[in-house]
Design goal:
Arc Repressor Mutant, subunit A, Terminase_Gp1_N_sf, Terminase_ssu, Terminase small subunit
């Protein structure tokens, strides 16, 4: 697995630093930087990361964003026409929101994709995605959809006991 230190080492090595300086930039101690730099330079994960990064193309704008002129108000797109947006009518008062179904992702009862399974699917399909970032995002999303099943509090336990007795 490509760790954060390995990634930092690879990026420093790609920027032109030597192995020892790259290991120091990645956060290794000065005593072990020379050995670690040599080890990491031969690591297959680091080599694969460097190869992936070298294959990526970087698009550079001719004029920097901060110097570009703002667009004129005429160039801005007009508001959508009211007829283009479907409105609920008497025959269909409740319109369900449109659901875009992605293949291979399981959906929950409320129509939302299961975040844990969706992130797992994204990790499998996109190897370039940082696994730690995707895992953290899945964890944060899962908190909203998969709630903890904790013990009931005193008041709710009393209410449940009263309902059973009645």
């Amino acid at each position: 697995m490509l760790t954060t230190q390995k990634r930092k080492f690879a990026l420093a090595l790609m920027s032109g630093k030597n192995k020892t300086a790259s290991a120091l930039a990645a956060g290794y101690s000065a005593k072990t930087a020379r050995v670690k730099g040599s080890q990491l330079a031969k690591d297959p994960e680091v080599l694969a990361f460097i190869a992936r990064k070298q294959c990526e193309t970087v698009e550079v704008d001719e004029v920097p964003v901060y110097r570009q002129k703002k667009s004129e108000p005429e160039d801005k797109p007009r508001r959508r026409e009211a007829a283009a947006i479907p409105q609920p009518d008497e025959t269909n008062p409740e319109m369900p929101p449109p659901v875009v179904i992605s293949p291979g992702i399981e959906y929950m009862e409320d129509g939302l994709p299961d975040p844990v399974k969706a992130m797992g699917r994204l990790l499998v399909e996109n190897i370039n995605t940082d696994p730690r970032l995707a895992l953290d995002a899945a964890y944060k999303l899962a908190q909203f959809t998969h709630h903890k099943k904790g013990d009931a509090g005193k008041k709710s336990a009393k209410g449940d006991a009263a309902k059973k007795a009645a």
